[in-house]
Design a protein that fits this description.
α1 crosses α2. About 10% of the residues are buried. About 45% of the residues lie in helices and about 10% in strands. By secondary structure, it is mostly helical. It contains three helices and three strands; from the N terminus they run ββαααβ. It has a domain of about 50 residues: Arc Repressor Mutant, subunit A (Orthogonal Bundle), CATH 1.10.10. It has a three-stranded antiparallel β-sheet. The longest helix is centred in the first third of the chain and has 24 residues. β1 and β2 form a beta hairpin. This is YebG family protein. InterPro entries: Uncharacterised_YebG (IPR009813), YebG-like_sf (IPR038627). Pfam families: YebG.
Length: about 100
């Protein structure tokens, strides 16, 4: 019987597990970024609901590379819809193979 190490984030309400530590750390960093963006939005745009702030923050965090590229002088990448959020600059294909959802 093989033994598999699983990594999970305590920030993730969906209780995802990862078999790769690097992917788990990247996911955790994305959630931390989204949380900080949400706080910033809530402090500066009081007319938005908590749910709207949360969705907006996650959208920005998931598309971090696209926003960075746009801020560096290529705003047209924000209107492109064919690329995956994290695939804009690094040319990687996103992989959901190592993600396992568990019941919480």
């Amino acid at each position: 019987m093989a033994l598999v190490t699983l990594y999970m984030s305590d920030r993730d309400p969906q209780k995802r597990t990862f078999t790769d530590k690097k992917e788990a750390d990247a996911h955790d960093k994305k959630l931390e970024l989204a949380e900080n963006i949400q706080c910033f939005i809530e402090n500066n745009l009081e007319e938005l609901s908590e749910t709207q702030c949360e969705k907006l923050a996650m959208l920005i965090a998931e598309n971090k590379e696209r926003f960075l590229t746009a801020l560096k002088g290529k705003p047209e990448v924000l209107s492109e819809t064919d690329a995956e959020p994290d695939d804009i600059d690094n040319g990687k294909e996103s992989s959901a193979e190592n993600v396992t959802k568990i019941a919480g």
